[in-house]
Design goal:
Layout (H helix, E strand, L loop, with lengths): L1 H21 L5 H9 L1 H22 L1 H15 L2 H19 L7 H5 L6 H14 L6 H11 L9 H22 L15 H15 L1
């Protein structure tokens, strides 16, 4: 009985913030609760989500989702890749009034590549999108993820290191649970008009 009550409490904690911010309950949350246990999953979420929100504010949503997509691809998690790649697509359309060169499914297909090739392919897409300013951030993320460089103690490296650590847990849960993709992992998910416009433009570009 106590375990059931704790599980329900943990799921309520894990569900509340994403539902409020993104407008839906992510399918990953029950897997996170099961793998980490009720108390640990709640504590992990309450520790990591505020730090992630601070990174969103510091880096901006586009850069944050570029990095979240990249690390999820590197780790091989299709669930997180699609959740953040779709956010990247919508934010890019909103801010640039055009489509990102690769759609979210094409981005997800890059999963499983060797890190150097993945880094190159993502870099090419960013250049095509006119996002050259994101390339140093992508390179630094891959350096830190591969332990090629150690964090220098600055706030930006600390944010990147936290993204790497946070998504190591989320990606492991997504892979272990074989979690099916759901919706966009960003508050832009609530912009129905933008999502409809994006779907229409993608359909036209693929026709």
């Amino acid at each position: 009985m106590a375990v059931t009550w704790l599980n329900r409490l943990a799921l309520a904690v894990l569900d509340a913030a994403p539902r409020r911010m993104w407008g839906f309950s992510p399918r990953l949350m029950p897997v996170l609760a099961e793998r980490l246990g009720p108390a640990r999953s709640s504590a992990w979420f309450m520790s990591n989500m505020p730090r992630y929100q601070r990174t969103l504010k510091a880096f901006g949503p586009l850069r944050t989702h570029v990095l979240a997509t990249a690390i999820s691809l590197r780790n091989g998690c299709r669930y997180c890749t699609l959740g953040h790649a779709t956010a990247l697509e919508l934010i890019y359309l909103r801010d640039r009034d055009k489509l990102f060169p690769l759609d979210e499914n094409a981005i997800a297909e890059l999963g499983g590549m060797e890190p150097d090739e993945l880094r190159r392919r993502l870099g090419d897409a960013l250049r095509q999108a006119g996002l050259e300013e994101e390339l140093p951030w992508l390179d630094r993320l891959f350096e830190l993820a591969a332990n090629e460089r150690t964090p220098d103690g600055g706030p930006d490296d600390a944010r990147l290191a936290h993204l790497i650590d946070m998504f190591a847990v989320l990606n492991a849960c997504g892979i272990a649970g074989n979690v099916e993709p759901d919706q966009t992992h960003d508050e832009i998910n609530k912009d129905t008009a933008l999502k409809e416009r994006y779907s229409r433009l993608r359909a036209e570009s693929n026709a």
